[in-house]
C-alpha cells in the first residue's frame, strides 16, 4: 500500500448495492445480517485475513478463512467487504464472518512531480464522500465500459509542520480513463489514507479533496478530521 511511485492503482469495480455503514452491535443481530462496509484488514504470514478494524474503531477477529486480496501476507489492507457479526450469549461481538472481500483503491497521496506522464483528471461524479478512521472514503460514479481506469491521489499542498496541532492538506483525484468510451455508469470505491499527515502532535486535520466533474468543473469537498487517540 506504500510503494506507489512506479505504478497507479487500477479500478476495482463492484456491483451496485445498498451500503450499510454500521459497526457490529447486538441491536441489528435479530437474524444473520450482512453489511457492506469499508474495513482495514490485517493479514497473517499465510496470506489470510486475521483481523478487521471498522471505521467506528471496532477491532474484530475474522472467524472464517478468507484469503487476502492478491494473497498479500503480513500486510495492512483497505478492503470493502460483506460481513456479519457473530455474537456471544451476552451480546458481545466475538468476531466477524467475511462473505467477500475486495481491495479498495487506496494509495498514499503523491506530489504531482511523481507522475511521470503528468496528472490526469478525467471526469467522475461523487456519489458519497465521508470521513472514516484515518481515511477519507469516496464512492464515485464513472462512465465507461468494462475497461480498467487508473486512480491515485495527488498531494497539491500541505500546510502546518509535524509539530503543529493543526495541519491542512489539499488533494486532487487522479483519474485516467484512457480511451474507454462513456457508454454506461459504474461505481468505483476509493479510500484516501491520511496517516502520513497525522503525528502525535496533530489535534485536527483539514482535508480538501478536489476532482473534475462531468460538467468539466472542479468540485472541492472539505472535511475537518479529529484523529482518534
Please provide a brief summary of the model.
The chain has 229 residues and is an all-beta fold.
Can you offer a commentary on this structure?
The protein is globular. It has no helices and 14 strands. The protein has strands at 9-10, 35-43, 49-54, 59-61, 76-87, 93-103, 110-111, 125-131, 135-144, 150-159, 166-176, 184-193, 204-212, 218-225. Mean pLDDT is 87; it is low at 1-7 and 9-23. It is mainly beta and 229 residues long. It folds into two domains: 26-103, OB fold (Dihydrolipoamide Acetyltransferase, E2P); 106-225, Immunoglobulin-like, CATH 2.60.40.
Features:
229 residues; mainly beta; OB fold (Dihydrolipoamide Acetyltransferase, E2P); Immunoglobulin-like; 2 domains; 6-stranded mixed β-sheet; 5-stranded antiparallel β-sheet; disordered N terminus
Distance between the termini: 23 Å
Strand content: over 45%
Write down how many β-strands occur, each being a DSSP E stretch of 2 or more residues.
14
Which CATH architecture of the largest domain? Sandwich
Largest sheet: 6 strands, mixed
Reported by name, the CATH topology of the largest domain is Immunoglobulin-like
- Overall geometry comes to globular
Q: Note the total helix count.
A: 0
Derived structural class:
mainly beta
Kindly give the count of domains.
2
Helical coverage, percent range: under 10%
Identify low-pLDDT runs: 1-7, 9-23
CATH superfamily of the largest domain: NigD-like, C-terminal beta sandwich domain
Would you state the CATH class of the largest domain? Mainly Beta
> What value does the Rg take, in angstroms?
18 Å
Mean pLDDT: 87
Helix and strand element order: EEEEEEEEEEEEEE
Amino acid at each position: 500500500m506504500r510503494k506507489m511511485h512506479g505504478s497507479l492503482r487500477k479500478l476495482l469495480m463492484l456491483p451496485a448495492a445498498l451500503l450499510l455503514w454500521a459497526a457490529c452491535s447486538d441491536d441489528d443481530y435479530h437474524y444473520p445480517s450482512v453489511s457492506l462496509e469499508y474495513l482495514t484488514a490485517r493479514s497473517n504470514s499465510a496470506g489470510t485475513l486475521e483481523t478487521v478494524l471498522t471505521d467506528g474503531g471496532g477491532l474484530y477477529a475474522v472467524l472464517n478463512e478468507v484469503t487476502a486480496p492478491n494473497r498479500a501476507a503480513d500486510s495492512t489492507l483497505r478492503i470493502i467487504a460483506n460481513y456479519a457479526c457473530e455474537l456471544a450469549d451476552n451480546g458481545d461481538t466475538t468476531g466477524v464472518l467475511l462473505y467477500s472481500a475486495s481491495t479498495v483503491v487506496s494509495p498514499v497521496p503523491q506530489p504531482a512531480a511523481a507522475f511521470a506522464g503528468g496528472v490526469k483528471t478525467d471526469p467522475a461524479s461523487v456519489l458519497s464522500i465521508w470521513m472514516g478512521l484515518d481515511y477519507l472514503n469516496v464512492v464515485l460514479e464513472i462512465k465507461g465500459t468494462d475497461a480498467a481506469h487508473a486512480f491515485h491521489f495527488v498531494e497539491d499542498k500541505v500546510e502546518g509542520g509535524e509539530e503543529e496541532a493543526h495541519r491542512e492538506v489539499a488533494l486532487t483525484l487522479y483519474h485516467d480513463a484512457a480511451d474507454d468510451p462513456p457508454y454506461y455508469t459504474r461505481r468505483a470505491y476509493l479510500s484516501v489514507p491520511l496517516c502520513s499527515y497525522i503525528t502525535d502532535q496533530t489535534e485536527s486535520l483539514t482535508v480538501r479533496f478536489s476532482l473534475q466533474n462531468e460538467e468539466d468543473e472542479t468540485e472541492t469537498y472539505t472535511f475537518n478530521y479529529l484523529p482518534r487517540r
